[in-house]
# Entry
Amino acid sequence: MTDRHWLLNINAVRAAQKCARLVELEFSTKMPLARTDFLEKIAECAASSDSQALKAAVKELTDIIHPDQDLPEDNQETLVHMGKTYPRWRDGKIFSGIYRGAPVYSEVPS
# Structure
């Protein structure tokens, strides 16, 4: 994976460090975050591991990096608010109301 923008997110870095520590404990293999294939190798290690802690840590990391994967497939839902129709989802955010005549979309609650 050449897209490494997730390294700018401190929560993603902390989750990645946790994954790297768990891989080192179980497989005695160091996994530096600087590896270009870090995410793929962590996923492979989790798949071949019996450790639920490692699998949970990798899931947490992927949820931080790719939060859009949990959104519903049918993003064409609409809702009516004060007589006007608005899309329920926009840019991965959910409709939360109207402010000064404009629709407001907020982050999806976890």
In short: Residues 71-110 form one domain. The mean pLDDT is 83. DSSP finds three helices and five strands in the chain. The CA atoms of residues 6 and 65 lie 6 Å apart.
